[in-house]
Amino acid sequence: MTTTNPNETTPALEELSVLDEALLVSDSQRALAEAIQTPLKYIFIAMAIPLTLCNVIVFSQKDMRSASGTYVVGLNAGQLFYIVSTTAHFIWAHFVDPPYSQYSFCVYEYYVTIYAGVLVAKRASYAILCLASAERLYAVVRPLHVKNFVLSKHPVIGVLSVYALSAVWHVFHLVKYRFEMMNIAALGYSVCRFFKTELYLSHKDVNDAFGSAARICLTYISLLIQLMLNVLTIWALQRHNMAARQVQSTTKEDAKRQQERQLTVTLLFASVTYVVLSLPAALLQVITTTVPGVTPTGKYRNLYTVMLDFGFNMSMLGCGVDFFCYLALSTKYRNAVFRLIGRKTNKLATNSQTTLTRTDDVTS
């Protein structure tokens, strides 16, 4: 469900230009896109939450703990918070009628969904993925020294540092607006209105600079670095395979090398998929920055809504598809999942058998 901020007015459409013809989306086209994308949104959310949670649980198991596993847990934990906070916002918005008539809803949307979910958690996930890819690249290039690599020795510190940096970097967002309930006579009800704070207005240039720097560094540059690391990892894997064929090694060394290679390929495939599916949302940020009118209430508001829904759906798909990448490409991950399911199944069977025994004792 897309809500519209009542504090913004909709400008009248001007005469069509070449740009207008390329970017204008009619109301009927927007309605058709929403009819297709809204069901997909809830399908992808319903898929992403349990699969992302499964990744966190599996990689937290004792036999799956490693530097790469820690980065995956940190990445998926942020994704899970982003998905849950956004889903709660959708559900809450569905029951807020009229929109923005509840003060608590506005506070949740601004501080939890936007700040903590979108700005801090989601953008930090891009940087964490870069750390995981850099660690895997080093493991391929210098396998004998990877244990001494800083990203391999202190993955927890790396993950926590990224989240802390993202939270501090976006702190300007916390002081940008204040909320106040106001009665709108024309509407016949009270709405929560957003007013820019004196602190923000007195340091507007600094705050805007922080916002632009966060968007560029944590989104665009992170995605670009991720692409470069993936290309270098593919090159390093090919070179490593050629060198391995020329060196005689024991069966134990071959097995260990194969396991490391499988882990690297799995994380490589998962990261490439995640980056590709994150591009539509990143593209929307570029368009809203460079093209005036691509806003929720601007001239190209229909295009904004369609691209926003599409980018969100691809982000949800990217959060859920990691599970299938790990399941298809990693034997160790599959075994861990099957063991986890087996333990839960055995525990349920044991509890059921105990309940039946106690019932028999009582009735006998």
Shape: globular
Specify the biggest β-sheet: 2 strands, antiparallel
Q: What is the C-alpha radius of gyration, as a whole number of Å?
A: 25 Å
Tell me the distance between the termini.
57 Å
Structure description:
This protein is mainly alpha-helical. Helix content is 76%, strand content 4%. The chain has 11 helices and 2 strands; from the N terminus they run ααααααββααααα. Strands 1-2 form a two-stranded antiparallel sheet. A hairpin with a 4-residue loop joins β1 and β2. α2 runs parallel beside α10 and α10 packs across α11. The radius of gyration is 25 Å and the shape is globular. The termini are far apart. Keywords: Membrane, Transmembrane, Transmembrane helix. It is found in: Membrane. Its main location: membrane. Pfam families: 7tm_1. One of its GO terms (cellular component) is membrane.
Quick recap of the structure?
With about 375 residues, this protein is mainly α. It has helices spanning about 20-25, 25-60, 65-95, 105-140, 150-155, 155-170, 200, 205-245, 250-290, 300-330, 330-364, and strands spanning about 175-185, 190-195.
